[in-house]
Write the structure tokens for this entry.
Amino acid sequence: MSVPLRKALKFWAKLGFISFGGPAGQIAVLHQELVEKRRWISERRFLHALNYCMLLPGPEAQQLVTYIGWLMHRTWGGVLAGTLFVLPSLFILIGLSWVYLTFGQVPWIAAIFFGIKPAVTAIILHAAVRIGKRTIHNHALRWIALGSFLAIFIFNLAFPIIVIFAALIGIWGGKRFPEYFQQTTPHNKVGETHAPAIIDDHTPTPEHAKFSRERFVIHSSVVTALWLIPFIALALIFGWKTLYPQIAWFFTKAAFLTFGGAYAVLPYVYQGAVDQFHWLSAGQMMDGLALGETTPGPLIMVVAFVGYLAGHIQHLIGNSNPFWFGVLGACVATWFTFLPSFFLVLVGGPLIESTHGKLSFTAPLTAISAAVVGVIANLGLFFAYHVFFPHGLGGSISWISIAITLLAGLALFKFQKGVISVLTGSALAGLLSYLLASLLI
């Protein structure tokens, strides 16, 4: 029994349009659709793939989609799944970036963003709880989650350091206390049964997912060519030290040097795009983050916003239509950000598939999963602080934002509403608050 490729591609394309809420929300959506609803993959195999993607630099949700697509339908299945996950948000962000630069800040649009930001806060906290219920099943893992939360909340410890510490604890704990680091799932509870998954816990690794020196060389050569040819072409057409080769090189480094997923990439991108290259202002970068949070697809698609603004603004003078220069900037930023992710999944996947069920490998990944829960919880509180206290602790409190967050949380936790419904309701709440404020003036 297997899923037809056409059916899978239809789902991956749909996912590109409904995957709101940043990586935490997207992983929750993936789990709900693939593990709970469709049963394409089992809980344990899903978490095994997720743990590997959490270790990689770059956007973990897109890498997870690529991994599962590859596991189900070979190399092209992974490439198409990962691409379809990204394409809708690329087109949407190009359009929104053009509107942003052309029409400026329209009050009613700002009001919609005002309503959506509290909802995103609730979505992230809800995702932390969902992932925590799946991965934290004993006191040892709870202490790891709490420790990672305190490490990043109080000491502002970098995510890669937290991952390293969690992995070391897992390696040590897997040998000394293996019962605490076994990969178990909530579905093991008595009386709770699920239909077998297509890729189940004990499903043999398919032939294409086993390590092959030939496939390793082919994948590495193809990805290298796909990186080198566009980079050389940009340098020859525009000049080595011009904007587009700079964008290509900068986002290649961002893809390889930033661990911890999209939220770890953002500070690096902010520092380079705003402080180093001055492609856009700090205020524009913050607006780009808001757009990234409120559009489907990976949060790191904010790179498309950065690339578009860099190309559009630099060619604003002396060109009748800078739109296409912005489009080129967005496409270059997206291509060189995501290409390494395909390489890391397709080359590293066979190694990871050979390790599922082996405690020596899964124990550190189990510990990392627990640490990630603490990091996501910290991110939710970080968002809450900036949404509830938009002018800092010394400024006024946004009681409307607190109310929207509480209502969004109620819809998610108690009534099990979907992400799109919550975002739509919150956007309408933000717009309603703006209209009421206008009438009272």
